[in-house]
User: Fold this.
Amino acid sequence: MRAEIISIGNELLIGDTVNTNASWMGAFMTEHGFEVSRVYTISDNIIQIKQSIVSSMSESDIVLCTGGLGPTHDDMTKRAVAELFNMKMRTDKEVLAFVQDYFSRRNIPFSHSNFGQAEVPDACEVLFNNSGTAPGMWFNIDGKYLAVMPGVPHEMQYLMQNKVAPKLHQVFGHTTHLYSRYIKTAGIGESTLSDNILGNLDSFLKDGVSLAFLPMAGGVTLRLNGTGSTKSGAEQSVVPLADYIHKKAFEFIIGEGKELTVSEVVGQLLIKSGQTLAVAESCTGGMIANEITNISGSSAYFMGGFVAYSNSVKINQLSVLAGDIETHGAVSKQVALQMAKNVAVKLGADIGISTTGIAGPDGGSVEKPVGTIWIGYWDKTQHFAIKASFTKDRIINKERTTRTALELVRRILKGVDSVPYNLEKQYP
Amino acid sequence: MRAEIISIGNELLIGDTVNTNASWMGAFMTEHGFEVSRVYTISDNIIQIKQSIVSSMSESDIVLCTGGLGPTHDDMTKRAVAELFNMKMRTDKEVLAFVQDYFSRRNIPFSHSNFGQAEVPDACEVLFNNSGTAPGMWFNIDGKYLAVMPGVPHEMQYLMQNKVAPKLHQVFGHTTHLYSRYIKTAGIGESTLSDNILGNLDSFLKDGVSLAFLPMAGGVTLRLNGTGSTKSGAEQSVVPLADYIHKKAFEFIIGEGKELTVSEVVGQLLIKSGQTLAVAESCTGGMIANEITNISGSSAYFMGGFVAYSNSVKINQLSVLAGDIETHGAVSKQVALQMAKNVAVKLGADIGISTTGIAGPDGGSVEKPVGTIWIGYWDKTQHFAIKASFTKDRIINKERTTRTALELVRRILKGVDSVPYNLEKQYP
Assistant:
């Protein structure tokens, strides 16, 4: 089955916005057994929208269209579709009630253009959108299908997962099945993982089985693809390769699932072991706490923490010895060790972690260049710090420090001895 | 002058690679006075490549095509172009010498397929590529132009800047210049801004001046586009509209610049007024501190903060009265007020802000549903809290609370009375 995508919006053409929606939808449709054969990216121009829909529908079984559904004058998509298929507009009562409620709960005056959000072409089926004010729409035009969705990424994703996917199943049934498994690793580089840990995998890579190394922010993700005439056949085809990877790369694997994060796994392990965590952050400035609290239910194991950005906070709130800051500097083993232990003791947590470093781009010296980072760890059985040298980029340094600290906790909770990126434990 | 872009590569369609090339080229061509009217993203399929080139050349003055120029069997672009225009292939001696040297300097054996890199359709002009082994190509077909470039981003960018740009100048001369100005707002919705604040702008939207509302994570960005026969003419053309917007929407405007963030502006205003900031975060879990410390130089005004996730941290570290938590709940005006004041006093900051709320997806009640958020504010002259009702989505709730809190601080530092999203100040 063939699918085409139409992305509408001037901001995409002049380069203000990167078309991440098309990639997301391409991956989604590929996983659902469709061949995505073309993406049109066009402007909010009614003639171009009509032409592209006609062209795409003639070449494919389903067309996914995003963008141009906002309340302002430059949003043309709904009008284009209604004109193209000779449909009248009707006001959808359910959508109108939702939009009115949405505004009243926010104390925002409901203006004239907001009424338009509830208008849809009369022959469409509304794909109700819980996460925004523009509804999705589903059209069946002589046995070809068109889904129209807003361009806001999280709204489009919500509609694809909750409204379009069931439609695909209902309309197209099962065709060729592609099955993807995502094995996520952390704390190891792509080439070390490939060359030194996994080695030659040619004997697994046949009969439609393929492997991709996807470097992502949190670590390297391995995507295993398999195909089959049934869903379970496709699933089975990748099992030998997956088993082999799990055996060889055990200590680096945080788990499976495209969206799995280290902070999620750390949370599961903390719940399992009945332990609690506290963090004392200097150079990461709240990023570790933010990652941890992105996980629903984190209040069960996360006590909280200090963002000890200034030395006075380190000394007065975290009881770091002022003399150690003077002698060794705020970016030092001694300070990292004290921050980790003291935050855990003060907040009554079982585990404490800390970060102190030079995030950059300014503030480095010959002895401690930008990118010098200390991470501290404390629990009742061990107390150490590790030193890393990252990049000259502030945001990348914050991210790497965050990932390394969380992966360190994961490995300890999992009983794995090695330290991320082969760094060395330094004791008090 | 109209331009179209053709991006070739299966990896773009199945979502493994995001099409950043098209955005980069879109911005480049827009700045050079072209209207980019369409992007085709297609697979490495010879028929589709030919069809797309024919279609794009019929609709535009210049077509920019990237991808499918590698040495492997799935790279089809060169063959498609040669077949389409009935050209023979020739070996380019200069390219061959460069490619051979490239391999020998890297000690890589020169294989048969590498010879193909030096072959080009005979009627093309070679755009010599210093940064890779695939040359760019320039075609003049009956007064319409086609540039073919590799899909590797830094190679494409090198060719666009060093080879295509001079060609554009030579062939099209100075044509129309486009100028874009970005005015960023925060704490106001798109429709309120459009309908209630700005009103009808038709009198400004003529002679090539246009306005787009771009909803982004931090707020609504207004993009003003102007055109002119000179660069300064294009710049001048948007001045009346920009001035009008600044006058009407003054209190909601954080500044100008596509990448400007509220946390950056708050930092500038704190430095200017010589004040310092501290944060006490419950439901945002470190996100506010993280946003603030993403800004280089934030240590000058940011003291740090508490992530007071558990009630015990609120009570023991932030001296929130246990009785108030018992009586009013942790998500209450009383707790938000105490957190904001106490964090500022404890850390010796001039301004304290706090958040406490039900981020979700669980934990709500009838009285306090998921999305109920309190934000507290304290400085020596005022002390209040605001209540907001956001969504059922945890991450969106964290983000909105973060933006609202930072925008609140910005408005106070700027002397603006109104509260983001028209929320109400509630005093102790």
Observations:
- The radius of gyration of chain A is 26 Å.
- Chain A has 16 helices and 17 strands.
